[in-house]
Every structure is written in C-alpha cells, then in structure tokens.
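Extended Data, panel c. Modelled sequence:
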Amino acid sequence: MRLLLVEDHAELAEWVAKALRHAGYALDVLDRGDHADHALKSQSYDLVILDLSLPGLDGLEVLRRLRSRQQGAPTPVLVLTARGTTEERVKGLNLGADDYLPKPFELAELEARIKALLRRSGNLVPMVRIGRLEFDTTSRLVAVDGKPLALTPRELAVLEALLSRVGRPVAREALFEKVFDFDAEARVEAIEIYVSRLRKKLEGSGVVINTLRGLGYVLAEAAA
C-alpha cells in the first residue's frame, strides 16, 4: 500500500511517517499543498492523509482539484485538522473527504481509520489466504500454518502488492512504487533483492513467486 501524507508540521509529520512506515506502508510525505497537487496529478496512491492548513495551496483546494480530476473509484482521503468547526467539516465532506480526524490524535486511531477507509474502498480485504499462507490485513501479520512469519516492512510491502494480484504479473516498476517513497535513494533493481529474500522466507508455505521475463513477478500457489 502506498500512502501520501500532506502535513506542514514537521514534528507531527515525522511522528506519523515513522509509525506508518513501521507498519509496512510505503509513504510519501509533503509539506505544501501545491506540491501535493502536483504529486496527485502524476502518482497513484491507495490513500491520502491531508492536512487543511497548508502553505502554497489550502488543503480543501487540494481535495477539490483531486476530486475534479478523478473518474471511477476515488482515492480515499482522510483529513487531519485542528479546525473543528461544523461548517468546515461539512464543506470538506461535500468536497469528497472520506473521514475527518481532529488534532491532536492517537496513532492507534489514525491507523484504525486508515484501515477502515482502505476496506471501505475495496483496497483491503480482512484476510488473504493462499497455500498455507495467511495475511491478516487488519493486524498486518503474516503466518504460515498458523505460525508468524517475520518480514521487514519492505518485504511485507512486496508481498502485499503481489497478494493483491495473485496469479497476475506485477511489474518491477509497480512494485517499486508500492515499496519505496519517491525520495528514497534506491533504484528499481533493488526490488530484486526483496523478492529474493521473500522467496527464501516463503519456502515451504505452498506459495511461490515466479519471474516472467519482461512482465515482472507473479505470486501463485505452488504446484502439488
């Protein structure tokens, strides 16, 4: 899952980013509304966490522009704000905000709201099972035969992206976008390292990751 956090309060942004990356999300962080508007024109995100009081462009205008461009299923938007007026909440909801979280907030509530929005949007199902592997999307825990499988956040992000398209190829570039922030100092080839590590950890799970030359990687149930 790739998320965008737009927050101009540096300490708050760092606090939230650390927690979400630890939870296995790929996260881009921006501190200006105009930069967020540009990113949302060129990048695809599973969910946006948007502050309202932003330099460059107000959060409500960022939201309005995003919704005006979108066709089909809209990107879920969770608004963070210290502005607590009913009038402003109504305006945000009318512009297409999916949820509001007033500041200050607890990280546990933020993560719970993110998961709820992802489930509501269809980007998240409660449990994924293939072979002897289980992925609980709510707790973000992976198990094989009921025993926890230890994965790093980036290994988990790779697995999650592959599980979202079981039996279908996922390009290296698409995996890279799901796993790395756009300011990360890494190259697309780094995905090969994480896929290799993941293959080793999945041995005996009844699940394999196959390479399709020119197409990417496919996660599938191992042949009996």
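The two ends are 31 Å apart (CA to CA). This feature is highlighted in the accompanying rendering.
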